[in-house]
Each structure stands twice: as structure tokens, then as C-alpha cells.
Amino acid sequence: MSELVGRVALVTGGTRGIGLATVKALRAAGATVVLTGRDQAAADKAAAETGATALTLEAGDFAATGNVVKQVAAEHGGLDILVVNAGIMESGLLGMIRAEDVSRTLDVNVSGAVAAVQAAARAMARKRTDADGNPRKGGSIVLLASVVGTYGAAGQSVYAASKAAVASLARSAARELGGRGIRVNAVAPGVIRTDLTASLPADVLDKQSAAAALGRLGEADEVADVIRFLAGDGARYVTGQVLGVDGGLIV
Amino acid sequence: MAIVERLRTVFVDALELPEGTDVENLKYRDIEQWDSLGHMTLVAAIEDEFGVELDTEQVIDLSSFKVAADMLRGAGVDE
After folding, report:
1. Cβ A70–B53 below 8 Å, yes or no?
2. Measured between alpha carbons, how far is residue B21 from residues A145, A205, B12, B28, B34 in Å?
3. Cβ contact (<8 Å) for B40 and A121?
4. So what's the pLDDT on residue A126?
């Protein structure tokens, strides 16, 4: 599979879970991939494992996020694919949510995504040439929403609100950037087996497995394959979509 | 070529301005071509032509041809 040969991709939060699986999927399709992580050692390890290059980034830092995007575009002669995967999930019932929990979730999940999309849109709008010297323009952005952003989940009001914001960002950015050949979509995973969901109680995970039409939890590579599809030319007429990857979750 | 000459060419190309446009007195949103979408195309074209990186504040402040020219001088682009 070589549909992404010659494309430059940036995956934020690419050290584990869906992000790491996405780095692997994009690399397998031939893309040059830069991943970011909060922790230098973890980022280096993921990069060594996948043949990507690593940068450290605190995803809630608006300015730093923009700078990382610019740096990648400058070092690789442009940017074709952005996957905004960096995110945090803090659970808390209403009545037990601190102001700083809200701010942190919105900073990482929403502000971080806006910063990345904004900087990527500028890089992708620029004319550049591919490895064969052909002119290219435009790009594909994939954001990570969540099934709870649409349907809600008890104990996840803030996380769900932040993911609804991400889905909304994808739709508006798609409208704004379509004219420049930039597609923006989101995937909305259901319950996927990652470190993020490992913290959920076992009975919750069992219930979620049963609630999926496919009768099981999802795997990170099953989300990554959809992200790779949206990133590539197979999805060239797809923009502004929020695609559920949830095994047919009945909420 | 002087900044103003090069910048005029960038404006005409990026915003697809008709011949005879008074480019040097243009202000943001004066004409339909220079709307918010045209603005981002223009910014990318200016960055490409002059090899500069405008930060977000500069992108927001870039409200006229004259401001753009001053910004480039401030960025150390040779006259």
C-alpha cells in the first residue's frame, strides 16, 4: 500500500493508543510522519518503533502547537496531512467538577485543535512541489471527536462537551477551507481499548461491549484505518463529516 | 525590485484583481476579492514571495496594502 508516498503527515499525541496506531497506518501507506508527545522519551520510542520522527509538544499550549506545525512544514517542504489526536479525558460527575478541570480539558481538546488546524491550514494552502516536482496544494485534516460528543455520557460532561466542540470545529473548518483544497473531517470513536479507556471500571466496559452492535470493544488500529482513509485520496470528495467508528454503538 | 512593486504583483495574483485596480490604496474588505478567505490566500502568497513568516497578530493587523508594505520593511525585507 503506497497511496500516501510523498505526503507529509503530522500526528499530535502519537505515542500510544489511537495516535500511535495512526502513525503506524500512515507510515504503512508510505507517508513521512512526524508525531508529537508530551514526554520526550515516549515520543522518541514511538518514533523509533514506527520510522516516524518525534517532537515534544504540550498540546494545551496554543502558541507551541502552531509553532510545531510550522516547524514540520518548514523542515519537510510542506504539510499534507494533520491528525489532531492529542486529547485528555477527565471524568467527573456534575457537582464534582473543578474550574481548572474544565479549563484544562478545553485547552487541550479544543484550543489545541484550533491552534493546529489554524497553522496547518496556512501551511496546506501554500503552493509546493512533491518529490517528483509536481505542484501540489491543499491537504487533509482529521480530528478526533467521540461518540460521547453526540450522545453524552454520565460522568463525562466536560469531556463530551469538548468533543462536541471538536466535531463542530471540523464542520466549520471544512466549510471555510474547502475553497483552498483542504478537507476537514473527524472520526468519532466508540469505546476503544486504549490506555484512556483502561481507567474505566470493568462493568462499564462490559456494558459498552454489549451495547455495540458488533458486540465487542474497538481496537486502536480499527480507528486508525478510518483515519488513513480520510487522510488519503480515497476520501477526496469527503469533507465536513464526523464518521462514527463505534461498532454500531446503541446508546 | 522594490517592495512595493513586488507586493503589488502578489496582491494582483493572490486576489485575482482586475486590471486597473488601485492596488496601493486597497484596504481589507474594500473589494469582494479581499474577504477573509482571500486574506489567507494573500498572507500565504506574501510569505512565499518574501520568505517571511507572519504571526497571527500580524495576519490580523494586515489591514491594507500600506500596512503590508510597512510590515515587510519591519521584517527586514530589502527595499
Report:
1. yes
2. 45, 64, 8, 14, 12
3. yes
4. 82
Rg (CA), chain B: 11
Give the least confident one: A14-23, A234-243, B35-44: B35-44
**A94-110: pLDDT as tens digits:** 989 999 999 999 999 99
**How open is the CA angle A116-B15-B54, to the nearest 5 degrees?**
40
Structural domain B3-74, CATH architecture: Orthogonal Bundle (1.10)
Instruction: Answer yes or no: is pLDDT of A201 > 90.
Output: no
Q: Which domains does chain A have, with CATH numbers?
A: 8-245 (3.40.50.720)
Test the A interface: residue of B39, B56, B58 with most A CBs within 10 Å: B56
Q: Which amino acid, one-letter code, is at A49?
A: E
